[in-house]
Amino acid sequence: AEFFSSVYEMTKVFGYEQKMLLHMQKFLADNQEKLDFLKARLREFENERNEAREWGAAYFDSPLNKYLLNKRLTVDWQRVENLMETSTGEKALNRLKKLRNREIMPNKGELNGAIDGLLRLQYVYRLEAKDIARGILDGVDYGNQLNSELCVDIAKLALRDQHPRLAHSWLIEANDRLAEGEKDKELKPQILALLVQAKAELKDFRGLNDTYQELIKIQPASEEHAKNYESFLKSLGENALLNDSKPILEHAPIPEEGEPVGEFQAFSLTCSGHWRLTPKEQRHLRCGYVTETHPFLWIAPLKAEELFQDPLLVLYHDVIYQSEIDVIRELTKNKLTRATITGINEAVVSNVRTSQFSFIPATMHKVLATIDQRVADMTNMNMKYAEDHQFANYGIGGHYGQHMDWFHQTAIDAGLVTSPEMGNRIATVLFYLSDVAQGGGTAFPQLKQLLKPKKYAAAFWHNLHASGVGDVRTQHGACPIIAGSKWVQNRWIRENDQSDRRPCEIWDDSLVTYDQILELNKQNEAASKKVEQNEYSE
Ligand SMILES: O=C(O)CCC(=O)C(=O)O
Ligand SMILES: [Fe+2]
């Protein structure tokens, strides 16, 4: 059902839960009625016995009493037994079960998916477990509390997904949140055992030892713990620095200028706003009205905001209307499916892209054709070779990791690209069909740009160099949603028939220095001379 990847699905499920509540109420009412009846019988029987006791031995002298006792022990008790035997509220229970077994309902795997989403939010936005457990997400208080058991569940997944820092912070939180009751007494050794594991991965050997000692104090007989500890000591070998104590930070420090940074890390730093352009770097960027591309624009100019010049990245404001969005919502109703990414041999469902999407051809509705005319005005491109309109909805925690929109040759060769004859994706127009309450921006790590979704706006960028080579600087992704629901529309424009719109060049404009371009020209000249010579020699 993949319900966690879309708020749209989540509202449906939420509606079903309302019905489940009603069935549970019915179940309770039926059972209450039964219990009330049984209680009344119990009191009746007790009264009769008390009366008998008052009579003493004389009780059995009365033939009437004999009869009453017999009647009770046969018919009345039989009735009670029968009633006790029947399962009450079965109908309500079956209805409840049926609802929960619906396709759309979340399953255990999706519970993990929801925790994954939460961990992603924590990692990307550098949130603290302490705050999340109190219901505070990036400064906004949602007022819910996570108990110790839930914190342990989250920690387990964090450990499994190689986030020992996050696991560590969730375990500390779980420990702080232990309550008095029996249930939480069982949790304590579990928490300590997991802490030992996390501390081992974080190489906090001193802390590990201390935690282990605490663990065997409350669970001395556990062979499993002892075995884990043994094998851990062995793996450390000679160099076990058991006195090494390390303060454990919940998040890795922000990398310094020039330090190597992983791609997902760079994407995350852009999402969280830690990577951004300085005012000086942005000084040459302009905002303005665009009127040149179509005479109609003299009446209704486009509002353009330049975000980057090379590669070109522009944000257009107010380029789609509520009436159009209403049509789109109607067109995509019940058509969304879990998004996939292009894998090695096939499209695959992946945690890298958790959203729901649908492709709709422009011929489906005249509104889509109108939008395309506007896209042509915005981009000065020929829309004849554009893909179908793609609509996507992201739920809480939903995201799309860093990627390039253009196709790698390997994907084309493997036959994974639809209509490869239309060429590569020369440009993208990404419409924002909703605002997003918190998070959910579009991040371009290489350009240090974070676009906050703004309803009715659209981002436009070139994916390819003028030579047709894919431009790696256009790498981007959808940051995870903290709160709200995000709707976007993608227009992917292909290379075909654009030569009069964006003339191609033989050099690759990723070669930023002029010297490099001259060098490439020289090579090209030499190569073409060689071709000429070959032609003459034939
Ligand atoms: O939703 C976003 O912000 C970006 C989506 C995206 O990059 C894509 O669908 O290719
Ligand atoms: Fe994209």
TrEMBL record:
Keywords: Coiled coil, Dioxygenase, Endoplasmic reticulum, Glycoprotein, Iron, Metal-binding, Oxidoreductase, Signal, Vitamin C. The lineage of its organism: Eukaryota, Metazoa, Ecdysozoa, Arthropoda, Hexapoda. Pfam families: 2OG-FeII_Oxy_3 (PF13640), P4Ha_N (PF08336). InterPro entries: Oxoglu/Fe-dep_dioxygenase_dom, P4H_N, P4HA-like, Pro_4_hyd_alph, Pro_4_hyd_alph_FE2OG_OXY, TPR-like_helical_dom_sf. Its EC number is 1.14.11.2. Residues 385-495 form the Fe2OG dioxygenase domain. One of its GO terms (molecular function) is iron ion binding. Catalyzes the post-translational formation of 4-hydroxyproline in -Xaa-Pro-Gly- sequences in collagens and other proteins. It comes from Drosophila gunungcola (fruit fly). Belongs to the P4HA family. Transmembrane segments: none annotated. Its main location: endoplasmic reticulum. Its cofactor is L-ascorbate. It is found in: Endoplasmic reticulum lumen. The keyword Transport does not apply. This is procollagen-proline 4-dioxygenase. One of its GO terms (cellular component) is endoplasmic reticulum lumen.
